[in-house]
TrEMBL record:
It comes from Janthinobacterium violaceinigrum. This is MMPL family transporter. Pfam families: MMPL (PF03176). One of its GO terms (cellular component) is plasma membrane. SUPFAM superfamilies: Multidrug efflux transporter AcrB transmembrane domain.
């Protein structure tokens, strides 16, 4: 009945997976940020980071460059022509005179309150005659600077000066209907685009990347030797997806091939291979279905990590098959299962504890991996328990020469005894471990876990330098009870940043108050203008006399200027297209207050301490360094998970104690020693300890205890069944995690390397802690 009930469950799993993949056509999530911890204590801080990331997520920037401007334009036009044929994928704003006029329209309506910082200082210090002379220079000199509109609309050049100051926030300039930027060798056309599809969508990546490749080919065909620099989240997401998919195939298929080969060499039959693959397949189906029901999504990295599950889920099937091979053919398989069930239950429990230890971290991705893997083990275990006894009988399995030779090798293994040899080995191990661990450093920098392709990293760095773009992971978060308070605090912060600009620690900053000064500042500036320029007898009247115009002309110009004297509001600015590049800086109303971001351009990483200090003591101003924050979380949880690993040993010891009593230490000792040796080897290899090494030690406990249980369940050295089960399980686990150690994803590589070393050592050490006598485990359980 249980076998039939389990068949119904498997049928439901098959139907649900068919619906997910064929009906719903699900796609694994590829957003690497989804794996990172959420800042739960400060929702405003989390919102600010998400705001910065979301602003960059849909953007795609391409620079098309050549040594000659005409060549750069021709190549860029060829590139744009290809994109134009796929207008549904990209959005871009054409650069023409109308666009520039629309961009300036709102500011011209409020130009009397918009002043550049040097002009504000001059208004405070200079006499009216200075401004009269400045206006005359604007009128008569051909080099009086750029003019926006008629001279009488801005006779003193104040609005033009403010526009010029805003233009300094980027090196990009309009030129011949294109956006232009240059370095010492090449001139580039800037092609900014916004994707219409989510950057992390596999469908978007499959649609956009071929178009970009076609556009690049067209540009290179138009101009030989053209330099094309591309940057965007979608490029990194596509590279990560491709890498993860390739690794998933390599790890999964490699593990599968290893299991098939080893199972064939052991049993010389297709049936055991089929049964092992059946248990693994049902484990994967079950974990995917339940994870989707629990989380509503599955990350691609979860599937990559889950591919290594193959090397663990087969343990239960191998344990049953090896015992079936070594048991009396007359013994019924169901009776054999009842005999093996206590050990099988303990192995499952220990492994699940190991995997669920990963779920104690703040990383959503690791929690998904933990649940996926633990569920996979449970479903594989249930398949073995419910189906294997019914599908394989005594006498079905035959062993080959490999089994006999491998079984004979156990007799050569030394046994742990209270003698001089054991003492010497113990002292040598302590010295080896102490020396290695003393060399072991720690490094929790999150940047060590980033492994983008070299060409993407190179393009990103070059583009950031050319565009003087701010970093999205280090910035100031400014808060206040009102929008006005936030803008005032921004202005105070900017004054503190001026010395850092002078010292070349940063090249500048981006802030909403650059475009919309606080009402307090706008009122003060308006008062300055009234005093120095607009009041009777001030600069405007002096100017009228100098150009032979009377009071009527001065009154007309004064009235015209005063019409543009209304304060500019943040809401009005956010509603016009000109605000689009800066909207990510304004969080608006959030958590009962208001907040904004001050981003930094040209930041030198060595100056981070000075930048953090610049905001100290300012109410409502907080320095945000997301790299440092996540790195500190990694370090904190590395220590925390180290304590959890030690606690897990205590828990597992308590679970094993009722069955093995004073011999329980023999089950745990191989895994504990292997964990210590793995840490020592990391020290000798000069690999810094990271959270993912510690997480691997947690999983190693779950896997390694299986081998100890196998050996203690059958202490008779003449019985090669447990040794065969340990060998097959360890070989497959080493294969799967060994392939994981070859991953280009640094976190998986660290995890896999630790598991590779640890599993191999547990395999080698387990026989040393086996029994020396030939009694059963039950008879020997009360002795040391």
């Amino acid at each position: 009945m249980l076998a039939i009930a389990w068949a119904l469950v498997v049928a439901l799993l098959l139907a649900h997976n068919a619906y997910l993949w064929l009906g719903k056509r699900i796609a694994p999530e590829t957003d690497i940020l989804a794996l990172l911890p959420v800042q739960e204590r400060d929702p405003v801080l989390q919102a600010s980071f998400a705001h910065m990331v979301d602003a960059a997520q849909q953007r795609l920037v391409v620079l098309v460059g050549a040594s000659d401007w005409a060549d750069a334009r021709r190549a860029a036009d060829a590139y744009s022509a290809v994109l134009a044929r796929h207008a549904g994928l990209f959005q871009s704003t054409p650069l023409d005179e109308q666009t520039q006029n629309d961009w300036l329209a709102l500011f011209q309506q409020h130009r009397l309150t918009l002043l550049a910082a040097p002009q504000e200082t001059q208004l405070r210090q200079e006499a009216p005659a200075f401004w009269r002379d400045a206006a005359l220079s604007q009128l008569y000199s051909p080099f009086g600077g750029p003019k926006l509109g008629a001279w009488q609309d801005d006779p003193f050049g104040l609005f033009s000066g403010w526009v010029q100051e805003r233009a300094q926030e980027t090196p990009v300039r309009p030129r011949d209907g294109h956006l232009f930027v240059a370095d010492g060798d090449r001139q580039y056309v800037l092609l900014p685009m916004t994707l219409t599809l989510p950057a992390f969508s596999l469908g978007a990546q499959e649609s956009v990347l071929p178009v970009l490749a076609q556009a690049e080919a067209a540009a290179r065909q138009a101009v030989a030797g053209v330099d094309i620099i591309s940057a965007g989240v979608i490029l990194h997401a596509a590279a990560a997806s491709s890498q993860a998919a390739g690794e998933m195939s390599t790890i999964g298929l490699g593990s599968l091939a290893g299991i098939i080969l080893l199972t064939w060499l052991t049993f010389r039959s297709v049936k055991p291979i089929t049964l092992i693959l059946l248990s693994i397949g049902i484990g994967c189906l079950g974990s995917l279905s339940v994870c989707w029901l629990l989380f509503g999504k599955v990350h691609l990295m979860t599937l990559v990590f889950g591919a290594s599950l193959i090397g663990v889920a087969q343990d239960y099937g191998i344990y049953f098959l090896c015992n079936r091979l070594g048991a009396d053919p007359a013994l019924d398989s169901r009776a054999l299962l009842r005999r093996l069930l206590p050990g099988l239950c303990l192995t499952l429990l220990a492994a699940v504890i190991g995997y669920l230890g990963l779920g104690l971290t703040p990383f959503p991705g690791l929690r998904h991996m933990a649940v996926f893997s633990a569920l996979g083990l449970v479903f594989a275990w249930l398949t073995v328990v419910f189906w294997f006894p019914a599908l394989i009988d005594g006498g079905t399995l035959k062993s080959g020469a490999l089994v006999e030779r491998y079984g004979a090798a156990r007799a050569c293994w030394p046994l742990l005894r209270a003698n001089r040899a054991t003492l010497i080995c113990g002292v040598l191990f302590v010295l080896f471990a102490a020396a290695g661990i003393s060399r072991l450093g720690v490094n929790d920098d999150i940047r060590l876990l980033q492994t983008p392709p070299a060409h993407l990293l190179r393009d990103q760095i070059k583009l950031s330098k050319l565009l003087d773009a701010p970093t999205p992971v280090q910035f100031y978060l400014v808060r206040g009870d009102s929008a006005e308070m936030v803008l005032q605090r921004e202005e105070t912060l900017k004054q503190r940043l001026l010395p850092l600009i002078a010292q070349k620690h940063i090249s500048g900053y981006q802030a909403m108050s650059n475009w919309v000064p606080s009402q307090q500042t706008q009122s003060a500036r308006r008062a300055l203008l009234d005093t120095a320029i607009l009041r009777p007898g001030a600069a405007l009247d002096l100017l009228a006399q100098s150009v032979d115009e009377g009071p009527q002309w001065a009154g007309k110009v004064r009235a015209q200027l005063e019409q543009a004297g209304a304060p500019l509001s943040i809401d009005a600015f956010l509603q016009v297209p000109a605000s689009e590049p800066w909207r990510h800086l304004w969080l608006g109303k959030v958590e009962g207050g208001y907040a904004s971001i001050v981003a930094l351009r040209g930041m030198q990483y060595a100056a981070i301490p000075q930048l953090a200090k610049a905001g100290e003591g300012m109410p409502g101003v907080q320095w945000v360094d997301k790299v440092s924050e996540i790195s500190s979380v990694l370090g904190r949880y590395r220590v925390y998970m180290g304590a959890v690993v030690l606690g897990a040993y205590v828990v597992v010891f308590g679970l094993l104690l009722p069955r093995y009593r004073r011999r329980t230490w023999r089950v745990l000792a191989p895994t504990a020693l292997a964990s210590v040796a793995a840490l020592a080897l990391l020290g000798y290899l000069n690999l810094p300890l990271q959270l993912f090494h510690v997480l691997a030690l947690m999983l190693l406990l779950g896997v390694g205890v299986d081998y100890g249980i196998f050996m203690q369940e059958h202490p008779d050295r003449r019985n090669n069944t447990p040794w065969l089960a340990v060998g097959l399980s360890a070989a497959n686990t080493i294969l799967s995690f060994g392939l994981l150690a070859l991953s280009k994803t640094a976190a998986l590589q660290a995890f896999g390397l630790t598991m590779l070393i640890g599993t191999a050592l547990v395999w080698l050490l387990s026989p040393c802690f086996a029994e020396a006598d030939h009694r059963s485990a039950a008879a020997a359980a009360g002795e040391i």
